[in-house]
Every structure is written in structure tokens, then in C-alpha cells.
Amino acid sequence: MTRAALPFDPIDRGAELWANSYDEVPRMRAITSLMRVHQLVLTELDDLVKPFGLTFARYEVLVLLSFSRTGSLPLGKIGERLQVHATSVTPLVQRLAAAGLIDRTRHPDDGRAVLASLTEKGRRVLQEATDAVVSAKFALGAISENQSDELSSILRNIRLAAGDF
């Protein structure tokens, strides 16, 4: 779906209006821009992986499993590493399993835990989806590699201050 561009920047306009009543205009503009860019990038990433039967969240699960030594992880670890609540992991894993991209098995050492493991089909789909995401420069083609590094550094400071790691 193509959106019609507005004839003005709504974030700049919002900042002007904000300034009439409140302080912290630069931070208000920054957070509003960050949230809007998040929406735009996530939409593009979802569109990129959709032809492979994925959402970006499901794609992230496949990537995480591919990075594990054995190609499998307990569902709790998936949530921990993706920094999402365990209740969010279950539906992702169920959809991936229904599509034949992962297998779910009982953990051999912990009967209560479930392991998610990449299937061969999952590895193929992951590779094809990754090729699409990389070709699209992770939806950040509008900025240079140096700007990407700078953005990562700025955002890292916020994550660090929030106790993210």
C-alpha cells in the first residue's frame, strides 16, 4: 500500500505546538521521530519477509535458532534472548512449527521445557528471507553505513542507561 506524503512534516509541526506549552522540545522531537521510524522500518521488514510466510518477529526466532550451537533452544531462552515475554514466544513458535520451519520437542534434561529446532525447510526459508532483508539494507537504505554505526552508538547509550545489558 502506497501512502500519500503529507505536504509538511507532522513531527516538526508537533514540536512547534509542543513548544507552546512544554519543555524538552528536542527530546520530544527525537522520541516521536524514533517511534515513527520504528513503525516505518518494521512495516518494511514485515513486507520483505511476508513472501516467505514470515513476520519479522518469526524471522528473528529463526535467526536466533540459526545462531545457536545446536540449532535449537528452549522457548524460555528464546524469549530471554529476544527480550520478549515468554507468552509472546509460544504463538511465534506455534506458527513456525505449523509451517514446518521448526520442530518442537521435549528438552532431554528438563521434561518441563520445550526445545525449538530449525528444520531443513526452516534453514532454506531463513536464507531466502535473509537475502531479501540484506538486499534491502534492513530497511535503512536511506542512511549510510557510518550513519548506521552512529545511530547504533546513540541508541546503545539509551539502552545502557536503561539497564538493557
UniProtKB/TrEMBL annotation:
Residues 27-160 form the HTH marR-type domain. Pfam families: MarR. InterPro entries: HTH_MarR-typ, MarR/SlyA-like, WH-like_DNA-bd_sf, WH_DNA-bd_sf. PANTHER family: TRANSCRIPTIONAL REGULATOR, MARR FAMILY, TRANSCRIPTIONAL REPRESSOR MPRA. This is MarR family transcriptional regulator. It comes from Ammonicoccus fulvus.
